[in-house]
Amino acid sequence: MKKGFVFDLDGVITDTAKYHYIAWKELGAEIGIEIDLKFNEQLKGISRMDSLERILSLGNKNDAYTEIEKEALATKKNTQYVQLLQSLTPDDLLPGVKEFLAQAKEKNIPCAIASASKNAPFILDKLGVMSDFATIVDPATLKKGKPDPEIFVQAALALGIEPAEAIGFEDAQAGIDGIKAAGMYAVGVYSGEALHGADVIVEKLTELNIDELLAK
Q1: What three-state secondary structure class fits 185?
Q2: Hey, what CATH topology would domain 4-14+90-214 get?
């Protein structure tokens, strides 16, 4: 019997990928690196600084900036991204999310957010679902990002359960790998990327039966 749910944010609860893409593309243009949608898929589920490093590698510019300058570039991207997020509303929840969270609350199943995004609290507040989550893992406290299982283990323990008692929800391969490495049951939310290793794959949460999930 499972006792808790651990969710990635982007691509599972809502989809802010388009805002990330716009912000990274604008930054890339400023530093002479062209970013397209195909390359942007590589940035899903990883941290801001790891994303920047991949972009700099794309343009063979890893050594062109100091660490302080890289931090400034990442901050500039995030400022633009947060401005774009101002338009988020509860209508931007992905299909079935509101209903699934309501069912979890009815059954007293605690939920956590395990996202690489440092903007998770702000996004959840804009979506109107902050109160549906018992805990949000602060990515600044992590030693390693996904696919390392650390964020998922920390989320489960914060809910007061063992990782094996939790179910993880992810839309990116790095996340699925992290969930499985943590010893959790993995629900893959398909968004165009093949998700290897997921225990079940759905396109939206409305396809899931919460009682059947909890019995896993």
Answers
A1: strand
A2: Rossmann fold (3.40.50)
pLDDT, one tens digit per residue, over 81-119 is 999 999 999 999 999 999 999 999 999 999 999 998 889
User: What are the residues whose beta carbons fall under 8 Å from the beta carbon of 173, sequence distance 6 or more?
Assistant: 45, 147, 193, 194, 195, 196
What is d(CA 119, CA 168) in angstroms, rounded to the nearest whole number? 20
63 is annotated as an active-site residue: no
CB 37 within 8 A of CB 20: no
pTM of the predicted structure, to 2 decimals: 0.84
Residue 46 CA to residue 49 CA, distance in Å, equals 8
Question: Does 91 participate in catalysis according to the annotation?
Answer: no
Which residue among the candidates 8, 132, 171, 177 is catalytic per the annotation? 8
CATH class of the domain comprising 17-85: mainly alpha
Catalytic residue among 10, 132, 171, 177: 10
